[in-house]
Amino acid sequence: MPNDTMTRWTVSVSKDTDISVRSFLAQRGMNKGDLSKFIEDAVKWRILDRTMAEVQDKFSDLAPDALNNLLDEAVAAARGPRHPILSRD
């Protein structure tokens, strides 16, 4: 039965990158099947890193106190009555 939550990729990397990644995984007792997990984790971290850099750039002109107030408002809204699990009450 096919797994509908997975997608197959075909990627090309340099020979040096291939050797480095496979050596890294082997040194940690991981096997060939762990390569997909490693790549998925790396992609998620890279997306987070890029997103954070974009957000930091967009808010770079905002004073620290104003940014903290904005963040406090967002957290309060997330913890509001519509999200009782996040609420501090």
TrEMBL record:
Residue ranges annotated for the XACb0070 ribbon-helix-helix domain, each copy included: 6-79
GO BP annotations, alphabetical order: regulation of DNA-templated transcription
Record-annotated membrane-spanning stretches: none
InterPro entries associated with the record: Arc_rbn_hlx_hlx, XACb0070_RHH_dom
Protein name, as recorded: XACb0070 ribbon-helix-helix domain-containing protein
Organismal lineage: Bacteria, Pseudomonadati, Pseudomonadota, Alphaproteobacteria, Acetobacterales
